[in-house]
Amino acid sequence: MSRNTKIVIRDLTKVFYKKEQSITAIRNISLDIKEGEFVCIVGPSGCGKTTLLRILAGLEKQSSGGFRIEKSSMHRPNQSMVFQERGVLPWLTVRENVAFGLRMRHLPKEQIQERTNFFLSKVGLTKFAHMYPKELSGGMKQRVSIARAFANDPEILLMDEPFGALDEQNRHILQEELLSIWSETKKTVLFITHSIDEALYLSDRVLLMSAQPGQIVQELQIDLPRPRTLKDIRANPDMAEQFLAIWQHLQTEVQQSRS
Ligand SMILES: Nc1ncnc2c1ncn2[C@@H]1O[C@H](COP(=O)(O)OP(=O)(O)OP(=O)(O)O)[C@@H](O)[C@H]1O
C-alpha cells in the first residue's frame, strides 16, 4: 500500500545576513516525506540541519522556496520539536511538562489527564511524575521531552539530536522507547543525528547533506526489517555497506569544507 506524502519541501533556501556578510545555510532543498516515515538527516557540522528543522517548525523563515505539511485534522498542531537539551521547563513538574502543550490548547481536563498518563507510562516516568527537572537525569529529561512531543499529537515530529548528550547505554534505551512509541502512533518523524549507527537503527530512509551550503546529495533506503537490534545491524553485510557509504560521505564533505 503506498502511503500519502506528509511533508513536501521545494527549493528551500535560507540565507543569513550579518553586517556585510551573508551565509547560505541551506540551498534548494527539495524533498518529499511520506506519512509515518522515519527519516534521519546526517551531515557535517554546520551544514544547515538545524536550520532546515527550524524552518519546518516555523521558528525561522526561509529566504526562498516553500514547504507544506499535509494536515489530517484541524485540531492537531503542525509539529512538535525535541531538542538535544533545554527542552523541559524547569518550573514545572514532569507531569505538568508532559501536559503543557495540551493545556495550552485548552483540551478537556479528562483528555489531558488520560493522554498525559498514557505517555508518562510509555516512557517509564509514572513514578517520577511529581518531580521537577532538576531532580532528573539527562535521560529522564529527554523522556519528558519525548512524552510531551507525542502527547501533543502533532502532525509531524521534528527531533534535533535528541540523544546527542546521552551515554551509549541510555541512548540505546531511549532509541528503543522512541521506536516503540513511533510504531504505535505512526507519526512522521524527521530526526537529525551525527551517529551513523543511530541513523541505521532508526530510519526508513537516511538523507545525506553536503557541507555548507547544505543540500541533500544522497539518500539511502534502510530496508532492514523491524524490530531491529544492534546485532542485526552489525551482522548484516548490506548495513555494513550503508555504514561505510555514510562514513565516506561525511569524510569527503568535512575534508572539502576544510580545504
Ligand atoms: N541565526 C543565525 N544567524 C546567522 N547565521 C546562522 C544562524 N543560524 C545558523 N547560522 C549559520 O548557518 C549555518 C548552518 O547552521 P546549522 O545550525 O543549521 O547547522 P547544523 O548542520 O545543524 O550544525 P551542527 O551539526 O553543528 O549542529 C552555520 O554556518 C551557522 O553559523
Automatic annotation (TrEMBL):
Pfam families: ABC_tran (PF00005). CDD domains: ABC_NrtD_SsuB_transporters. It comes from the Bacteria. GO terms for molecular function: ATP binding; ATP hydrolysis activity; glycosyltransferase activity. Residues 7-236 form the ABC transporter domain. SUPFAM superfamilies: P-loop containing nucleoside triphosphate hydrolases. Keywords: ATP-binding, Glycosyltransferase, Nucleotide-binding, Transferase, Translocase, Transport. The keyword Isomerase does not apply. SMART domains: AAA. This is Mannosyltransferase. It comes from Domibacillus enclensis.
